[in-house]
TrEMBL record:
Protein name, UniProt field: Ribulose-phosphate 3-epimerase
UniProt keyword Amino-acid biosynthesis, yes or no: no
Keywords: Carbohydrate metabolism, Cobalt, Isomerase, Manganese, Metal-binding, Zinc
Lineage: Bacteria, Bacillati, Actinomycetota, Actinomycetes, Micrococcales
Binding of a divalent metal cation, residues: H31, D33, H64, D173
Cellular component GO terms held in the UniProt record: cytoplasm
Amino acids binding substrate: S8, H64, G140, F141, G142, G143, D173, G174, G175, G195, S196
Length: 222
């Protein structure tokens, strides 16, 4: 399975977001973290900034909404041009209705799970989403260390997707680096978000390529 790399601009220079989006032009997606200081204790950017990022980005945008009331706010991110919009399972009142609305607006629909949120309740609803995001750190901040305890959840999600025959992607986000990406790929993830590992690297394109190769080698090994 091809590994998709989505650098997180949370680790970019917020005074130079356009420049730093162009720095990741060899990536598959640009991962944009929207945080509202309520769902998570951090605040990043909202719709007006997001709309401009979508206009200038050389790669499709993967929006990760760490916000309360995504039922109300998420569709606007699809309308702004996000290729994919992921909302949190813990925050959505009606996840299936929201996923259908995002797809109707032309975006992929993703559902995100905090490390302690079980995936089981969503396994019967796989046909309604395009991606499950298994958070591999507590959402809110970059630079945290990968939680190995999330690997069984990635495995369960991958098994359920394989059994279903559906093309649902499994994304991991948090603490993804050269030293952890193989474990996540081996468990079944195929979309990898990495913030500090990519933007902190000496060569940003070199790091994207290294992560992609490690993930693909690991995915092909089993
Ligand atoms: O959602 C996130 C944190 O909530 C991020 O995408 C975060 O940027 C990941 O950063 P790092 O790769 O440095 O762990």
């Amino acid at each position: 399975m091809a590994a998709l790399i989505a650098p997180s601009i949370l680790s970019a220079d917020f005074a130079n977001l356009e420049r730093d989006l162009h720095a990741i032009s060899t990536a598959d997606y640009a991962h944009v973290d929207v945080m509202d200081n309520h769902f998570v204790p951090n605040l990043t950017l909202g719709l007006p900034v997001f709309e401009r990022l979508a206009q200038v980005s050389p790669v499709p945008i993967d929006a990760h909404l760490m916000i309360e009331d995504p039922d109300r706010w998420a569709p606007a991110y699809a309308e702004a041009g996000a290729a994919s919009v992921t909302f949190h399972a813990e925050a959505a009142a009606a996840p299936v209705r929201l996923a259908r609305e995002l797809r109707r607006l032309g975006s992929r629909a993703g559902v995100a799970l905090r490390p302690a949120t079980p995936v089981e309740p969503f396994l019967d609803l796989l046909a309604e989403v395009d991606m499950i995001l298994v958070m591999t750190v507590e959402p809110g901040f970059g630079g945290q260390s990968f939680i190995d305890g999330t690997l069984p959840k990635i495995r369960r999600a991958r098994e359920a997707v394989s059994e279903s025959g559906l093309d649902v992607w499994i994304q991991v986000d948090g603490g993804v680096s050269r030293s952890t990406i193989e474990r996540a790929a081996d468990a079944g993830a195929n979309v990898f978000v990495a913030g500090s590992a990519v933007y902190g690297a000496e060569s940003v394109p070199g790091e994207i390529q290294a992560l992609r190769e490690l993930a693909e080698a690991s995915a092909h090994a089993h």
